[in-house]
Amino acid sequence: MSGHSKWATIKHKKGAADKARGKLFAKLARQIEVAARAGGGDPDMNPGLRTAVAKAKSSQMTNDAIDRAIKRGTGEAGAENYEAITYEGYAPGGVALLIDVLTDNRNRTGAEIRNVFTKHGGSMAEPGSVSWQFHRRGVVLVDGSADEELLLGIALEAGADDVIDDGGTWRVISDPSALHAVSEAVTHAGLSVLSAEAPMVSDNLVPVDTIEGAKAVLRILDAIEDNDDVQDVYANFDIADDLIEAAAS
Questions:
Q1: Does the residue 3 lie in any domain?
Q2: Cβ(196)–Cβ(58) under 8 Å?
Q3: Do residue 224 and residue 108 come from a single domain?
Q4: What is the pLDDT along the chain (249 residues), one digit of tens a residue?
């Protein structure tokens, strides 16, 4: 998980500095809309919506935009009908990928995802052949300036399982059910939460130890994430921080 977490942190910082975030906000709004449709418009009573809203706020999406997305989901405003699909596949080097999409046209999206795999040296996989390697975890990223002992005490008391130094950020790991409580406790303590999400993670990491290999993996990730229908991409690569930094630049 370490490599993918580092890549997620780099993307978060890159996105925060990017003035043109329309595509990101459109994806976040779609996630909020679908969560509200599935479980209602009250984040306190709908864990899926609560997680989607927290993700949107960490990306600096405005409250007005979040409220509009919730209203579309609950039927108070016009909304599209989206279908949730998970595609599975492999990046170059045998890195496993899970791709969550929300689409109003399964045939179009499937063809586009398959084309990305073909173009970038990956391969699609049958349903279930990749997903068994992943499980969902709560992950709160906290600014690295936070005091380790203070963060550890707050996080563990709120239900976290571990606090890991990711080099510049702290990664707080918990059961998904404890994600909101952990994030709230850290925030109330005055520490800076960069993101709070419940990604799919894998303990079966695939080492990538060359710059060429790192670039190939990150290139296909970027190409997949560039698709408007793709909401999240999860991977089980393990790339050293310096290689990720070099490949990302």
A1: no
A2: yes
A3: yes
A4: 445 555 665 665 555 445 446 788 888 999 999 999 899 999 989 988 998 998 888 888 899 999 999 998 888 766 678 889 999 999 999 999 999 999 989 999 999 999 999 999 999 999 999 999 999 999 999 999 999 999 999 999 999 999 998 878 899 999 999 999 999 999 999 999 988 888 899 988 999 999 999 999 999 998 998 898 999 999 999 888 788 888 877
> At 214, which CATH number?
3.30.70.980
Q: 120 and 32, same structural domain?
A: no
Which two structure tokens, joined as six digits, stand for 242? 């310096």
Task: Indicate the residue type of 111.
Answer: A
- Surface-to-core class of residue 169, CB atoms within 10 Å of its CB (0-12 exposed, 13-18 middle, 19+ buried): buried
Rounded to whole angstroms, how far apart are CA atoms 159 and 172? 10
Buried b (16+ CB within 10 A) or exposed e, 23-54: ebbebbbbbbbbbbbebbbebeebbbbbbbbb
Report the number of distinct structural domains present in the chain: 3
- Domain range for 142: 138-198
Q: Could you tell me if 235 and 218 are in contact, meaning their C-beta atoms sit under 8 angstroms apart?
A: no
Whether the CB-CB separation of 31 and 103 falls below 8 Å is answered with: no
Neighbour tally for 101: CB within 10 Å: 25
